[in-house]
Amino acid sequence: MLTISNSVALADWEIDLTQIRAQGNGGQNVNKVASAVHLRFDVQRSTLPGFYKERLMQLSDQRISKEGVIIIKAQSHRTLELNKEDALARLKAMILEAVKVQKARRATAPSKGAKRRRVDSKTRKGKIKAMRGKVQD
């Protein structure tokens, strides 16, 4: 069972964990031990509340397929148990990030003093560059 929040939890049957061989270098161990984990989570079939499902499907994340299946590959650790924990933690973080309400952005404008300082620094820099020309006799 993966606990997302106080009221939301995912059952074990909703998360499909598969052992695979890790990619990359690692000597003989990487070629004979299946220590990487492929996590598959179907958003549409899950018991998540509707709000969670909507927000997850709106994410523009390459780990979410068009059918609504989240695929996470964890292979950064040497042991299967650590990779499982890593994959589950990344799934939880993705779900929590999706339901986080963004703060409304208010448009602001620079103050008169800031504008004046910006223009003054530009003219100062322009005068310095103008003095870099050839020296006339």
UniProtKB/TrEMBL annotation:
Keywords (alphabetical) are: Hydrolase
InterPro entries named among the record's database cross-references:
Pep_chain_release_fac_I, Pep_chain_release_fac_I_sf
Give the top-rank taxon of the lineage listed in the UniProt record for this protein. Bacteria
Q: Where is the composition biased (Basic residues)?
A: 113-137
Q: Which GO molecular function entries does the Swiss-Prot or TrEMBL record give?
A: peptidyl-tRNA hydrolase activity; ribosome binding; translation release factor activity
Residue stretches spanning the membrane:
none
Q: Prokaryotic-type class I peptide chain release factors domain: from which residue to which, for each copy?
A: 21-37
Task: Quote the SUPFAM superfamilies the UniProt record gives.
Answer: Release factor (SSF75620)
Q: Where is this region: Disordered?
A: 105-137
Q: Where is the signal peptide?
A: none
One Pfam family in the UniProt entry: RF-1
What EC number(s) are associated with this protein in UniProt?
3.1.1.29
GO terms in the biological process aspect are: rescue of stalled ribosome
Say which family it is in: Belongs to the prokaryotic/mitochondrial release factor family.
Q: What name does this protein carry?
A: Alternative ribosome rescue aminoacyl-tRNA hydrolase ArfB
Source organism of this protein record = Cobetia amphilecti
